[in-house]
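> tool_call: predict_assembly(chains=two)
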Amino acid sequence: MVKYLNLLYWEVFRLEENEKPEQGEGLNYESLVEKQTDQLEELLDRHDMKELQRRMEELNEFDVAEFLSRIDDNRMPMVFRLLSKETAADVFANFEAPEQERIINSITDSELAGIMEELYVDDAVDIVGELPANVVKRVMRAATPQTRNLINQYLRYPENSAGSIMTAEFVDLKKYMSVKESIARIRRIGEDKETIYVCFVIAADRRLEGIVTVKDLLLSSDDTIIEDLMETNVVFASTTEDQESVSAKFADYDLMALPVVDNERRLVGIVTVDDVMDVMEQEATEDMEKLAGMLPSDKPYSRTGIVEIWKNRIPWLMFLMLSATFTSMILTSFEDMLAVQAGLVAFIPMLMGTGGNSGAQASTAVIRALSLGDIEPRDALSVVWRELRVAFLCGIALAAVNFVKMLLLDGMLLHNDAVTVPVAATVSMSIVFIVLFAKSVGSMLPILAEKLGVDPAVMANPLISTVTDAVSLLIYIYVAKLILHI
Amino acid sequence: MVKYLNLLYWEVFRLEENEKPEQGEGLNYESLVEKQTDQLEELLDRHDMKELQRRMEELNEFDVAEFLSRIDDNRMPMVFRLLSKETAADVFANFEAPEQERIINSITDSELAGIMEELYVDDAVDIVGELPANVVKRVMRAATPQTRNLINQYLRYPENSAGSIMTAEFVDLKKYMSVKESIARIRRIGEDKETIYVCFVIAADRRLEGIVTVKDLLLSSDDTIIEDLMETNVVFASTTEDQESVSAKFADYDLMALPVVDNERRLVGIVTVDDVMDVMEQEATEDMEKLAGMLPSDKPYSRTGIVEIWKNRIPWLMFLMLSATFTSMILTSFEDMLAVQAGLVAFIPMLMGTGGNSGAQASTAVIRALSLGDIEPRDALSVVWRELRVAFLCGIALAAVNFVKMLLLDGMLLHNDAVTVPVAATVSMSIVFIVLFAKSVGSMLPILAEKLGVDPAVMANPLISTVTDAVSLLIYIYVAKLILHI
């Protein structure tokens, strides 16, 4: 235990001796933050505002934002106003929309103007995009004309485009500068830039000519000219490029920042890696939501209202319920046949489930591979061939196990007289065809969607289940006719 | 068109006049790379190795790796050997395992040693983890004893832990250094570090005392002492921490690099943002695979063999097929009752589908919210209350539409005599209860899993469908008994 005593961390967190972790318990950032937050709450309850203020300035802005989101709504704006101007803007950018709105409604115009000036343009655009119109009006009034113009310009880019997530605060250099001049420029203007580590070399007409990193600058001699140092083979994005393609570039090329250019190759903004991580989370969430038959929501689950959740979920549920009419019709039209062999009905849910699950596996694998750029629409044939072979292996294994299971479990153990060898053969053979069909459809529909320029994830598992449900039933009925001669 | 003539890009790519994009067509990095790759292939076909070599050195390593993966296997190693030692290592790190194996098997021991020395430890660990044992032996022999020890040490960390994705190449500073000394140190040792932008201040016993960024250094005066400049409130990870928690920290705190410490708070490695992007992609893919009832694969879809895909898919398919036995048993035991009202059978698939889809929506939303840290197991009650209200709204809407639809479409238009008002009421009322049940189960099972320390994503949609299938059927039968008195 003694060895923990001189850890800086415990000093910062001011933990009591008995709060330090037992040896071997391990260090854990989360539990430190939790203890810290508890202490802030105590200070607040004791009204020790001076110490509270001092401690909040020491903390990471994200943790301060989390702390403020959790204290009750009446005291929150008051505590927020204890923060210094710089910290206030950082904490504000880390808030969700409801907290931002609450703050805006309880600070003065000049405080709001102060925050707006400290915010990066991309954060300001995010905030403006999520607030109700009357609040936006006040925010825009508080911004300087220059910021206001930038925000308006950025808001015009299509949603989820590179233009909509880029920011304007980057370091620009000229190719005739020396390393020494460049470092001097970074020192002069770097403070308010979203990144200084990647600098953008632009011509007089703002065309992007290359990039140079601070690493290059630091590792070169002072009198090296930027033109000799810069990388001209630059990975870039166009303003209208989809953010999913932007994040793929970051992952592929291990980028820290990506220049965004217009059609004349003029540099209009940059995207930084921290924003791209948010994009990746958001895109993955959207894909999962679509795969489960929901409309994508733009808010975290815990922040979404009941009616909004309902609105996101009911369209697919309704559509799928109505399209099950086909299955009903098939069942109704074969009622007489199924009455002859009533035992067949018992296996319909299993067959439909197996079809749905097989199709969902294939579609999920293909949708994810498409979205990661692992496969492309032109690979359609090889994908189907791959899925058909997998389906054959799966179908045979399932059919064999099912055949044995039906005869032993359903037939002998559960005394289901309807289960005879021909019936078991009918069900097992249907499985093979159903899995073959489900996996081909499940893999083809997303590729087809991509080819048509539609998001493949709308070919969601529920949709594929509904298609396979109807076809599974038809397969079952025709195999039964063939084998059982009914 | 003329305005494109002086773009540096076209010079690098050496595009012919007629290959330049039409005005307004837009700039697109992907199509530039494609043209470039075509030109490399032409050079290869013409055996112009000197020009090919020169052009590959100009390209981004990721694009070179992509180009090499696409040319045929016989010529690939030969072309790879044209690369300079530094580029070769970078390209090598960008390869997938099959290409890495091919290269290792066709270069000399000293060439391999050269690559190993240029690789970052985390890349070397990745490579060693994916290669067959006999190839690993040769790779380890080619590494220096120091690298070999590091690789062995890193391989001992649990899979998917912070320790398994960290790297050893970081800049360490002492707190008594001045800014000038620190910059001098970065210039001296920075070349081979994975990042120089975040520097780690450590004590003599390697305990982490703080971090300082190059931005801080550049914006401070030369004689500032690191101790006065460094941030002591450092976000860190422990070696055994799960990589999902690591990537959440990057997203929350907008980090570029994260220190990884052992139980005594000694700095053992760092995780950089480029590796975290790969982790985020991989974790999202795994969650999607689990949600669709597949075991997670560690390779891209297009690289996974048929048998391996089968092995990932068959366990859940088999388990779910067998668990459908319950549904069969329920159907069998109510055979007589269903025979009295044969028309009821036609709506079973729709009811089961609606239950499965409702449950999948809830479980996906909850699983994603859990994995993003938006909700925690202690929120269980509020989540269920939320889902019950949503379920009620969904159930009522679906039931109302279904009631009207059954009477108008099934009853009047399709002349299904079995559809009477009581039957429509039975089906509609069942929908309400089924949706209520499915949404509660769908939201509770993932939270329960999280509480038990199991990955919530194993409470996958197929599993929830199987549970709701059986219960939906029971609900339907009991509602039918109640309303139709059968």
